């Protein structure tokens, strides 16, 4: 794995006009490889895209809330071993009516499983996409406490 340096972050920022956070996350996902990070960042300009996270059961509800706060989320799927456990459509009107009860149910459901994957389907312009890849799936991010 190549190191992530300020020079590499600046290269991505200069070439694509992304934020420091976006550049750093792209480099982390690409293992420090600038070319792979450039490709991933360019791909997110295509429209709808998905993002995938691996989380421990106790972290699922917090991660879903965080993703919703970031915005541009169309749908959230919670999967285990490629089986969809829960699929939550997210819309502006649905946040209060659907999401909050769904999050409570999600927390109970996921407590049974040790590890699951959160898949997020987003849309929007590249400027509105905070951290992502196109419709290809980003390698799962291991979140440990």
TrEMBL record:
<feature type="domain" description="DUF4342">
    <location>
        <begin position="48"/>
        <end position="122"/>
    </location>
</feature>
<feature type="region of interest" description="Disordered">
    <location>
        <begin position="125"/>
        <end position="145"/>
    </location>
</feature>
<dbReference type="InterPro" id="IPR009060">
    <property type="entry name" value="UBA-like_sf"/>
</dbReference>
<protein>
    <recommendedName>
        <fullName>DUF4342 domain-containing protein</fullName>
    </recommendedName>
</protein>
<dbReference type="InterPro" id="IPR025642">
    <property type="entry name" value="DUF4342"/>
</dbReference>
<feature type="transmembrane region" description="Helical">
    <location>
        <begin position="84"/>
        <end position="113"/>
    </location>
</feature>
<keyword id="KW-0812">Transmembrane</keyword>
<keyword id="KW-1133">Transmembrane helix</keyword>
<dbReference type="Pfam" id="PF14242">
    <property type="entry name" value="DUF4342"/>
</dbReference>
<keyword id="KW-0472">Membrane</keyword>
């Amino acid at each position: 794995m190549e190191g992530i340096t300020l020079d590499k972050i600046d290269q991505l920022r200069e070439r694509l006009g992304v934020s420091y956070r976006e550049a750093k996350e792209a480099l982390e996902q690409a293992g420090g490889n600038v070319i792979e990070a450039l490709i991933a960042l360019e791909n997110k300009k295509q429209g709808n895209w998905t993002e995938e996270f691996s989380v421990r059961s106790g972290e699922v509800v917090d991660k879903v809330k965080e993703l919703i706060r970031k915005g541009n989320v169309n749908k959230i799927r919670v999967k285990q071993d490629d089986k969809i456990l829960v699929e939550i459509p997210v819309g502006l009107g649905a946040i209060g009516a659907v999401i909050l009860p769904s999050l409570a149910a999600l927390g109970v459901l996921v407590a049974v499983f040790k590890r699951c994957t959160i898949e997020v389907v987003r849309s929007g312009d590249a400027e509105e996409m905070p951290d992502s890849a196109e419709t290809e799936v980003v390698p799962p991010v291991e979140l440990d406490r």
